[in-house]
Structure formats: structure tokens, C-alpha cells
Amino acid sequence: MFSGETVASCHLLLNISRLLKDYVHKWRELKPVPGISPTYPFLGNTLNFKSNGRDFFCQVVGYTKEFWNSPLFKLWIGPVPFLILYHAETIETVLSNPVHMDKAYAYKFLHPWLGTGLLTSTGDKWRHRRKMLTPTFHFSILTEFLEVMNEQAEVLIEKLEKQAGKGPLNCFNHITLCALDIICETAMGKKIYAQSNHDSEYVRSVYRMSDIITRRQRMPWYWPDFVYNYFGEGREHNRSLKILHSFTESVINERAEYITYVESDSESDQGMRKRRAFLDMLLKTADEDGKKLTHKDIQEEVDTFMFEGHDTTAAAMNWAIHLLGSHPEVQKKAQQELFEVFGESERPINTEDLKKLRYLECVIKESLRLFPSVPFFARTICEDTQISGYKIPKGANVIVITYALHRDPRFFPDPEEFRPERFLPENCVGRHPYAFIPFSAGLRNCIGQRFAIMEEKVVLAFILRYFNIVACQKREELRPLGELVLRPEQGIWITLERRKH
Questions:
Q1: Which of 74, 76, 73, 71 is nearest to 88 (CA)?
Q2: Which of 64, 235, 240, 464 could cross-link with 205 by S-S, CB 3.0 to 4.6 Å?
Q3: Distance from C-alpha of 335 to C-alpha of 393, rounded to nearest angstrom
Q4: Is the pLDDT of residue 271 over 50?
Q5: Alpha-carbon gap, residue 46 to 268, rounded angstroms
Q6: What residues make up the domain containing 347?
Q7: What's the structural domain count of the chain?
Q8: What is residue 276's three-state secondary structure?
Q9: Closest C-alpha among 438, 421, 192 to residue 308
Q10: Contact 472, 493 (CB under 8 A)
Q11: From what superkingdom does this record's organism come (predicted)?
Q12: Which residues neighbour 186 within 8 Å (Cβ) at sequence distance 6 or greater?
């Protein structure tokens, strides 16, 4: 008989042997693909890269320029190979292929927080969940959230009003807290008053967790859980995780009890009914067999909405504010459009108004082109494939550098120039469908993109109706941090002047 230690040792050796075999196979298969050097066994190109978000991002973008005439290039983070894509044609071959639907290895570090919800799930679970959730993002349902967006935008205006005419202010946190209030109330039906109480434990944990995950993704030595949990950062991750999960869990239980009460008491006072939230729809949604989501399933999706739905939208609005403040002629044109729709009225924004704000939508899209909220995202190659003549083995990871893709002069002449007119319908004719993908593309595109555009239109429209914006920073001073979300290193500094109607 073999001892337990012998069996465990055999298992360990077998696993190491498999990993080595897989590593050597990928190394050989990817040898013809152009790549950066030096590359070291098992460490890959890790030593080439800086550990902080800004420098790492600048390095990757720099390599896309160096390899611009190649369809792709490779880099190794530890023993894991990544193929870097930045041309619309090569990106389309991956994103349009239903085989390569799985998110890349780095997304596993989101699992402790988000579980395997819509962002991180794969295969049949993703297809099943996407099919169930798509109806909850129908335009007719999204319009119900306009009231929340209007209310929170009004709170933002009140806060900005106190600082108008008083010199430079960093608007980044103001906008971010507004977005957090909007997503909390629309996703969970819960008011957290982030704009009034930005020191709340939940708000701090949302921010902290995003930073912690980003750092771990860049540091292969932190990838094994037993190593990560030994260090202070791993323990801080677990503390933040506990706060985030306990909050959403309590909200789900509270909302479920409320729905049960309302359904059992049909004569209850209709005036006391709460606004509908995504959470309500998740609690009621069932598949073709009538099977409902469990509370664990719902928590995965609520946490995903919270993660994806505030930081990305907030960043997009902040970049747009900087660009508007740097281009007074564009700002004036957007304000003229708003005057044509609203006149001097201070009324809330409705769905018909949103349809008329076509130029403002062009401003938002051009801002997303220059500063995509998600500057890169990744997929796993799920079977051996060919990309631009190169054989790519199953298990390799692909990173789409949206930031570089959106600067392709073939589709966007003078790509560093801010020109919202690029997105007028007549100027989009003939443009490659994968040349502009701020919400990804293909089957796994962002389910919440219409919600995001609606929110951005409402908040920016409110700001432009009340204030003139003047940017205090030049573009080169913004120093974008390419983390999970593209953010300016020192915030967005502006001055606000009250408008005279």
C-alpha cells in the first residue's frame, strides 16, 4: 500500500509535469509570433514591466506603436502567454467567433467578488444567464430609471453650485459618487447617499477592491491563493470582500421580503410601493422551465452590476467633461442643442429629450474613442486557431487594446483630435464595425451599454445646462492610469461658471 504522502507527491509531480508540457507546447507554437524581448523562461516578460498602473499601461501602448505594422504581438506574464490585438480586422476574428467566448485567466481574480456572473461566467452558464437577463435591459424598462438619474443629477448640481466661481475643483469624485448613487438605486433599489456620505464603508470597499484586483493581475507571484492570502494585501482583499458581500446580501434579503409582502397583500397602499430596480426583476426572472435564480445567483449579478456600472460610466463622464472644457466650440454647440430642446426650462429630462440630444451623443462617443472606460479586455482562445496567418494554440490569452484600436488613422484621421462629428451617421458609413468598441463587441458585448449612454447623457446635460466648463489641465497632464478602468492619475480639474440664461 502507498502512503498518503506518496500519493500526494505523485499527484503534485503529475500536475507539475502537465504544466511544464503545456508551457513548452505553447512556447514552441507561439515562437513565430513577433514579441518583445528579453523573454525569460517561466518569468516571461514580467521583469520588463513596471508594477504601477500608469507605467505598465504606457509600456503596453508603446509596444502597440512599435508593432503597429504587425497584425499582433505576444508577451508573457509569468508562464502565461498573451497575444496583443489592436487592429479591427484581427480583433473581429476573435470577438465574432462564438468558440472564443471565455474570459481570460486574469478574470479569475474577480471570482471571489463577482462569482461567475455575467462578466466572468463561461460556456452554457453564460449563454443561459445572458438569455435570462437580456429582457431586463429593454429600453422600456431602462426608461423607468430616468427618474433616479434626474434626481441624482440634481443632487450633483447642488454640490457643484457651491463651488462654481470659486476656482479650480477636482470633479472626479463628485461625478463618481453621483454614478454610484445611480447604480445603487437602479440596481438594488437602495439609496446609499454616496454624494452626501462618501466615507461610507461600502463606498470605500468598492474603490479599494478594484485597486487590489488590478495590482494582483499584474503580479504573477500573487496569483497562487496560498501566497496571496499570506500577505497583507490578501488579507485586506478579504476584509473588503466581506463588507461588499454582507451589504449586497442584506439588500437582496430585504428586497425579497418586500416583494413577498407586496405580492401577498394586493390591497396594500399603492403609494407605498417602491421604485422598480434590476434586483426586483432578478428575483422574479425564471427560465423556460420556470426555474428562478437562487439568491447566490442574484448576488453574483448584483455585484457585477455594481462593479461594471459605476466606475466605467463615471470615468466616461469625467473624460467627456475634460474634453468639453478643453474645446469651448464643442461645448457651445452641445449647449445650443440643449437650449433647442429645453429652452430656459429647468425641467427633468425625459425619453423624448434623450432622442433629440444627437450631438451630445456624438460628444460621448468621441470621448469614449479617445478615453475608453475599459482600455483593454481579454479572452481565452478555446481551440487552436489562426489569426492573420499565425497559429495560436488553445489556452493562449488574447488582449484587445481598445485604447490603441480607437487611434487607428485608417478609420479616425488625426486620431488624437477631438471631433464629435466623426460619429454623425453620415460619417460612420463604411467604417469597420470593430473599429470602435468601447463596450466590447460580438456576442459578449456589454449588456448595459444603453443604460450607460442614457446615464451619461442625463448627467452631462444637467451640467451643461447650468454651467460653462473650463479645463485646468492640458491633455498631456492627465496621465491616464490603465487599470480595470481608465482613470486620470490626478483627477479632472476644472473651473465652473454659472450660465446666464
A1: 71
A2: 240
A3: 52
A4: no
A5: 62
A6: 27-498
A7: 1
A8: coil
A9: 438
A10: yes
A11: Eukaryota
A12: 145, 148, 149, 277, 278, 451
Q: Are residues 492 and 473 in contact, defined by beta-carbon separation less than 8 angstroms? A: yes
Sequence-separated (6 or more) residues with CB below 8 Å from residue 65: 404
Burial annotation 439-471 (CB, 10 A radius, 16+ → b, else e):
bbbbebebbbeebbbbbbbbbbbbbbbbbbbbb
- What's the per-residue H, E or C state across 112-155? HHHCCCCCCCCHHHHHHHHHHHHHHHCHHHHHHHHHHHHHHHHH
List % helix, strand, coil for the chain (3-state, nearest 5).
55, 10, 30
The number of residues in the chain equals 501
Give domain status of residue 2, yes or no.
no
CATH number for 402: 1.10.630.10
Q: What is the mean pLDDT of residues 218-245?
A: 91
From the list 393, 415, 406, 459, the residue with the least C-alpha distance to 435 is 406
Mean pLDDT for the chain overall:
90
- Residue 396 placed within a domain: yes
Highest mean pLDDT among 141-150, 216-225, 286-295, 406-415: 406-415
- Are 150 and 132 contacting, i.e. CB atoms less than 8 angstroms apart? no
Tell the residue number behind the cell numbers 426572472, with chain if given: 285
At 265, the pLDDT band (50, 70, 90 cuts) reads: low
Q: Which of 47-56, 247-256, 403-412 has the lowest mean pLDDT?
A: 47-56
Distance (Å, whole) CA 313 – CA 449: 10
CA 227 to chain centre: 28
What pLDDT score was predicted for residue 351? 96
Q: Is 428 annotated as a binding residue?
A: no
Task: Please report the pLDDT score of residue 264 as a whole number.
Answer: 66
Amino acid sitting at position 308: E
Which has more confidence, 6 or 273? 6
Strand, helix or coil for residue 52: coil
- Quick one: CA torsion of 113, 116, 120, 125, rounded to 10 degrees? -170
User: Residue 448 falls within a domain, yes or no?
Assistant: yes
Q: Which of 441, 427, 431 is nearest to 411 (CA)?
A: 431
Rg over CA atoms, the chain: 24
Q: How far apart are CA 479 and CA 490, in angstroms?
A: 8
C-alpha cell at 49: 514591466
Instruction: Tell me phi and psi for residue 169, to 5 degrees.
Output: -140, 150
pLDDT at residue 266, rounded to an integer: 54
DSSP string, 391-437: EE-TT-EEEEEHHHHTT-TTTSSSTTS--GGGGSHHHHTT--TTS--
